[in-house]
Amino acid sequence: MKIESMESVGTSGITRRLAGAAVACAAVLAVGGATASAQATAPTQTSAEASAAAYQCNYGAICVHGYKWVDGVKKYYWAQPYYSCINHGPWTKFHPTSYINNQTDGTVARFKDKDKRTIQKTGGAYSKGKVNSPGSTYYVQPC
Known about the structure:
4-stranded antiparallel β-sheet, 27% strand, globular
C-alpha cells in the first residue's frame, strides 16, 4: 500500500479513501457473516407455536394462524390480518389453529362455522389463543 502525505492527498481524499476501505471491509464481513449466519440459524418452522412466537400482529387487527395441506405436507402460515367488521372467509382449505387479537382494547372477535354461526369468541383485545375447532371454522369476524 502506498502511503502519501496529507499535503499531497488533502483531507477530502483521505476521507474518501477511508470511506471506501470501510465499505469494502463491511462488504467482506457481510458476505462472510451472512453465510455463517444462514447456516447457523436456518429457520425450521415445524410448529404453529414457533411461527406464532415470531409473528407481529398490527394494532387494530385480528391475526389468524393456521395450516393447509400442500402436496401431502402440513404447511403453517399466517392469514392476512383482518380489520373490517365483516365475516372474512369462507376458508375451505385453510384451517385456523391460533389467533392474536390486537384490535382496540377489549374488542372481541368471533370464529364462525360454515353457516356463519358463532362457534368461538376470542378474549378481549389484547389476547392470544387457540382456535377450538380448526376443521369446522370457516369465518372470522373481527368486531
